[in-house]
Amino acid sequence: MIHGWSAFGGPAMVDRPSNWEEELSRWLEPFLDCLGHKARRRMCPLYVAGLIGPGDRKSVQPMAARLAPGDYDQLHHFIADGVWDAAPLEAELLVQADRLVGGNDAVLVIDDTSMPKKGDRSVGVAPQYASTLGKTANCQTLVSLTLARGEVPVMVALRLFIPENWTSDPVRLKRAGVPIEHRTARSKPEIALAEIDRVIAAGIRFGCVLADAGYGSSAPFRHALSERGLLWAVGMSRRQKVYPTDVTMIFPTEKARKPRKHHIPDMSPVSAETMLVGVKWQKISWRGGTKGPLTCLFAARRVRIADGPKHRVFDKGVERMPGDEVWILGERRSSGEQKYYISNLPADVPLKTLAAAVKARWICEQAHQQLKEELGLDHFEGRSWAGLHRHALMTMIAYAFLQSRRLTAAGRKKKSLRPTATTEHAGH
Fold first, then answer.
1. Mean pLDDT: which of 12-16, 313-317, 324-328 is highest?
2. How far is residue 81's CA from residue 83's CA, in Å, rounded to a whole number?
């Protein structure tokens, strides 16, 4: 038994003769070189094989019982207590991900995923919004980065978000083994930016950063992406205020006790939803689905987003000043639901390109589902920071291996369908 790929693109159990464990062993060699210690080099393939192989639970005890009944203590020590640095393996994962799906046409998707958890001892567990459940629940939340090209995602980062009731309790943080550099409060966008910097430093190739409104509504997050010279397309609230592109900054005279120090816009901002009123909505197909092309209605307009400094504007109160010129994009679904996005893609890109960019974010949700349902991302039963992140890292390595097999199999299939040299030349 080995994991193949299910109808929705993820791993699935199938009966197929395959020497996959030897293939995994070869594929893991650069990762094992990073571990050094002989015992760790033996435990890592066991752990990854346990995640990939059959079994309902992918926590240490049942995996050890299936694969190496006498090695439970060593397997547990490897993942939960061993003194080893995960950074070299994380760096190697980036190298492999870039080799598999990196390129100028790849996207880097920022998101987070929640894992419901009982009790209050496991690191980062707190009542917080659980995207998986669509409500507030006791859970852990991991900020994720996914490198994807076409419909092939490779998860490259999972970092725990630490809620305020943890960062305000030094004893609790120390007991869970949270490193000192991670004990200060950081927002999810701040965690994401740190991981983006790590990805950029590794030379990973991608063309655009994507994120939902949880990240896209943060002006500092958008500004930080632009400051790094990145293209981005992110979700936003329909209430986000914007200005027309022809807004002009003026320096009015007014009777006041203090002279005005700053220019102000010659018009008031309106919501993104209002700005798209009167704009033509077009039916766009962004990719094929299992039941045919996926389509929605889209409308777009160039604007200047109201995310500059705050200044008082006469009797209208305090307003954000106009920022950079960007696209706003509206999506109208068949259910009647409407979504809004903002992007710094060039002014001459067609509407279909904008639509395809924002809709490419779905691939990370598929990856989250596969890592949980197939590889046991949410099965870890330990409580420590190191154990959770090492388990998450092993699931990402396992997922990258399966994507490598998927791409190799697709390449063989494509090669077998290739015409003869003579026909190929004539067709060309």
1. 324-328
2. 7
The lowest-confidence range among 32-41, 309-318, 407-416 is 309-318
**Which sign, positive or negative, has the C-alpha torsion 394, 400, 404, 410?**
positive
Give CA separation, 212 vs 189, 198, 228, 232, 237, in Å: 11, 21, 19, 11, 10
**β-strands 338-343, 232-236 pairing:** antiparallel
User: Predicted confidence band at 255 (pLDDT cuts at 50, 70, 90)?
Assistant: low
Q: Which residue has the higher pLDDT, 136 or 9?
A: 136
**Residue 150, by phi and psi: left (phi above 0), alpha (psi -120 to 50) or beta?**
left
Nearest 5°: phi and psi at 319?
-130, 150
Instruction: Tell me how far apart the alpha carbons of residues 280 and 254 are, in angstroms, rounded to a whole number.
Output: 40
Helix axes 385-416, 362-373, angle to 10 degrees: 110
Round to whole Å and give the CA distance between 196 and 393.
Answer: 17
Question: Does residue 377 contact residue 395 with C-beta atoms inside 8 Å?
Answer: yes
Instruction: Tell how far CA 398 is from the center of its chain.
Output: 17
Res. 208: pLDDT tops 90:
yes
SS3 for 409-421 is HHHHHHHHCCCCH
Q: Which two tokens stand for residue 408?
A: 């190799």
Nearest to 31 by CA among 103, 116, 88: 88
Averaged over 306-335, what is the pLDDT? 82
CA neighbor of 35 nearest in space, from 27, 44, 26: 44
pTM, entire model: 0.89
pLDDT band at 336 (very low <50, low <70, confident <90, very high): confident
Tokens of 98: 């870039």
Is residue 3 over pLDDT 60?
A: no
Position 361, amino acid: R
Secondary-structure breakdown of the chain: helix, strand, coil percentages, each rounded to the nearest 5? 40, 25, 35
